[in-house]
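We treat protein structure as text, and this decision shapes the records that our systems exchange. Because each token names a local backbone shape, the row as a whole describes the fold. For reference, a complete record is included directly beneath this paragraph.
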Amino acid sequence: MPISNGGKKLSDIASLVGCSVATVSNAINGAGRMSDAMRETILAKCAEHNFVPNSAGRSLRLQRTDAVGVIYAPSFAELFGNIFYARIMEGLAETFGEAGVDIILGNRLETDGLPTVVRQGKVDALVVLAGVFNTKSYEGFRNCPVPLCIVDGHTDSLKADSLTSDGFGGARLAAEHLFEQGHRRVLMTAYRNSLYNIQQRTSGFFAGLRGCGMTINEKDALIEVDTDAEAAETIIALVEENSPPTAIFAVNDTMAIHLIEALTKSGKKVPEDVSVIGFDDDAVASHYHPRLTTIRLGKRDFGAISARLILERLADRDKPITHMVLPTELVIRETVARV
């Protein structure tokens, strides 16, 4: 007969096994000295009677919640519509799951910018998916009482572990590839904001071109836009000029695909008339026609490594702050032609 939800549940199990309440508690929490046989007997009796320890009380005793918060701006609806971050979430969920740690999604912020899940003591640590966070966005985490891991972003203003891709090096690879294929009239399209990743990719691309011996005016060669549609409209106008660009580096694959679609609709062929190279290696890149040449980074690795950084930080709060940079690689497909 299952034990009822009310009453002294620990004492019920203790009576059934014939031991003390403290022994039952230690068996459940993996603590105390007892024989393996006794621990197995207690856990088997808990399972037999569908006994589940009270998680709130357990958290108070152990000073932990076995949960990690994940925050993303502006909303989780947008997060799961973004293949890049959806893949990161896969890695987070699997690695935390294997460690017995739950994920709590918490985008609600207090007036000072601190996530409500942190203020209410519901999480042991916080993962910040920071791809759309600018410098001001980090201010709310300045006095965060739990460990932070900033994923896909970095700031020196916070004492927090962080993980980014080598945007600078990857963009430099894109520049070098275009130069090797004979392109000298090149442009870069990027979103008009101060995000860390965009800054890194922009700096890397123009550093790569200069490293190849090109003299290039970044103000003229960088097309900053608010939307993919604006990028496409601008590029369509530029390719109709007397000295059109022969190649375009888009800050991510989403923008690159928009550019290819717009160029195709306008009567231009990719890569025969204009070459296009992206960044991220989203799933669509290898299935699109023509298949997109791009810069690959391990999105799922982002999540798994970030989770391990959090777990290591929880195990040792005093260890040195870690900033990891994951390597990127050029993936040559069909959208860059030799000229």
Notes: The chain has three domains: 9-62, 67-166+300-327, 167-296. Confidence is low (pLDDT under 50) at residues 1-7. Residues 167-296 form a domain with the Rossmann fold fold (CATH 3.40.50.2300).
